[in-house]
Amino acid sequence: MRNPKYSKTILARHSAMILDPHRTNPLYKAIHKVVKKGDVVCDIGAGLGLLSFFALSSGASRVYAIDCDTESLNIAMDFAKKHGIADRISFIEGHSSDVYIGEKADVVICETIGSAAFDENILATLADAKKRLIKREGKIIPAAIELWGAPATLQIPQSKDTVIDTALVPKKNLLCKPKRLARIETRNKLAAKIHIDQKFIIMGNGELSGIAVWPKIEWTKGFVTDASPLKAPTHWKQCVLPDRHRAVKRGDKIKCEIIIQPDTSNPKEQTEILWKLVPSFVRRGKGR
Hints:
Blueprint: H1 8-18, H2 21-34, E1 40-44, H3 50-57, E2 62-67, H4 70-82, E3 89-93, E4 105-110, H5 122-132, E5 134-141, E6 144-152, E7 164-167, E8 179-185, E9 194-201, E10 206-220, E11 223-226, E12 238-248, E13 253-262, E14 271-279
Parallel strand pairs: 1-2, 1-4, 2-3, 4-5
Antiparallel strand pairs: 6-8, 6-10, 7-12, 9-13, 10-11, 10-12, 13-14
Helix pairs in contact: 2-3
């Protein structure tokens, strides 16, 4: 029975992620592949604690579950106490960049991934964790994060100019074959800012009204989640970056520039996404 002291909003928000089999199943398998008996694990953005519990079931000796959300951590702590595992989890409220755990972790798990892949500041978070929270030879889940996208016909108002962070874009609305816009491997040096320049060629007549983007995550080798409109829907759906509606024809070229970076007003918790689409309207066979 649901505990009435917890808000419906937070339970609903987390349940969408937890009950997404295309996210949770491969993530569970990746944790059990990577975490070994006796490992110390740091779970950044722990939420309701599910990934921390996965790490314990894989043999972790201790898990540090870190989250800024008090209510989420309270739910996780209640569950851990109920199931007799609270003595192996240290629940820490706050942003991971402000946390010191007193030892270096063997594994860092960080699933702060948004529908635009990098829009929850995962790169800055992991860059800090690599410096302070994880052993030099430690492992990170996810192993790699990609951002994919394509120009699309979108059912949005002409006046809409802000990010729509969760939209289900039908594959028939994509105006060309999706392209990988960025790939980051977390074992490498990480920068907090992503700057993308990409060109697309429109594959058929239609109306351009923005670009749809989505994440593709390699949790560890062999275990992947792909939020593409060409795949089964995930809780991420797609992120929509709207643009002025305009007619396009087969062969038109579209230049897309996207910047994803920490928001200067709240760089630890907020992300800024800047974008522009520049049609060149150079058409195959038309000479212009």
